[in-house]
From TrEMBL:
Name of protein: Uncharacterized protein
Cell wall biogenesis/degradation found in the keyword field: no
CC terms in the record's Gene Ontology section: mitochondrial outer membrane; pore complex
Main subcellular localisation: membrane
Localization, UniProt: Membrane
Keywords: Ion transport, Membrane, Porin, Transmembrane, Transmembrane beta strand, Transport
Entry GO MF terms: porin activity; voltage-gated monoatomic anion channel activity
Length: 347
């Protein structure tokens, strides 16, 4: 196993969360496979700067250089970040289809990704190309429906700003321009359709890395009505995240909870409770995840309707991931279980 050795600047909330990094600017040993998890922790960003190579002074399992790791608070993020950790835990990668993805890169830096999906008796496929030139990323995707989706992203045209232009051919009404702005105490995203009577979207969050409150609005200029208005609250403290959102024009209340049990094994638990006021229906989903080893992760979830799912992901190498999903209806054991398979290759 390969290890990193270096130093870390750690904000106070994570001193209690990461026992391997208890003291600020203390030396640490970190398995290379743990870096993606550290990068994924909420409200932090990790950047690396390495010095010139020096003679190896550590065991052969250590890299022959030292680096400085800085973990910095990002602020409240965007509205879509409210409850995102719980949603990823409970719903991300759970799919009952068969999916195969292969990604290659040309000598000129163009990344080409081909995807094939089998949904029952239906077969779907798409191919996309991605090219990054300085701070501009162009992504073009063609699918089996003869649709061509183009997305152009400009990162940091000004500090904290991101511009996104997208459209789908031949849908002439699909053009959209979006601006995102991230600040230490605010996050704003606004978009407008490129039509005569566009739909205008706005979402904003104010707060910090501990408490954030925001809203998400959509306004139809053709009818003069709001087609969406949501609100959300996010609270982050040490190893837990609690979120509360009011969606569907105030008709649905969602409460979610995410708790980091063990950072070293990427063990976490989460739950989401939803109440619909018009139908007076409730739904509850709880789930957990745990890393068996640095390359293998397990996830499981169950909801109040009796649907139980399990997921195992294994990285054969940093560029190849295998995922297997199973779902069973505990209220009807006689029914066949649903099985999903996904393979992602990056030769």
């Amino acid at each position: 196993m390969m290890w990193y050795q270096g130093y870390v600047d750690l904000p106070p909330p994570y001193e209690a969360t990461l026992p391997l990094l208890l003291n600020q600017r203390s030396p640490f040993h970190l398995p290379i496979q743990r870096l993606p998890f550290i990068l994924s922790l909420p409200n932090i960003r990790v950047s690396f700067s390495s010095s010139s190579n020096t003679s190896p002074t550590f065991s052969p399992l250590l890299l022959p250089f030292r680096f400085l790791t800085k973990i910095m608070v990002k602020g409240p993020g965007l509205y879509t970040d409210i409850g995102k950790r719980t949603r990823d835990l409970l719903f991300k990668d759970y799919q009952n289809d068969h999916k195969f993805t292969i990604t290659t890169q040309t000598s000129t830096g163009v990344e080409i990704t081909s995807t094939g999906v089998r949904k029952g008796e239906l077969y779907l496929a798409d191919i996309s190309t991605k090219l990054k030139n300085k701070n501009i990323t162009s992504d073009i995707k063609v699918d089996t429906n003869s649709s061509l989706r183009t997305t152009i992203t400009v990162d940091e045209p000004a500090p904290g700003l991101k511009a996104i232009f997208s459209f789908i051919f031949p849908d002439q009404k699909s053009g959209k321009v979006e601006l995102q702005y991230l600040h230490e105490y605010a996050g704003i995203s606004t978009s407008i359709g490129l039509t005569a009577n566009p739909i205008v979207n706005f979402s904003g969050v104010v707060g910090n890395n501990l408490v954030a409150v925001g809203t998400d609005l959509s306004f139809d200029t053709a009818s003069g009505n709001f087609t969406k208005y949501n609100a959300g609250l996010n609270i982050t403290h040490a190893d837990l995240i609690a979120s509360l959102t009011l969606n569907d024009k105030g008709d649905t209340l969602n409460a979610s909870y995410y708790h980091i049990v063990s950072p070293l094994t990427n063990t976490a638990v989460g739950a989401e409770l939803s109440h619909n006021f018009s139908s007076n229906e409730n739904s509850l989903t709880i789930g957990t995840q745990h890393a068996l080893d640095p390359l293998t992760q397990l996830k499981a979830r169950v909801n109040n309707y009796g649907l139980a799912s399990a997921l195992i992901q294994h990285d054969w190498n940093p560029r190849t991931r295998f995922s297997l999903v199973g779902e069973v209806d505990t209220g009807a054991i006689g029914k066949s279980a649903k099985v999903g398979l996904a393979v992602a290759l990056k030769p």
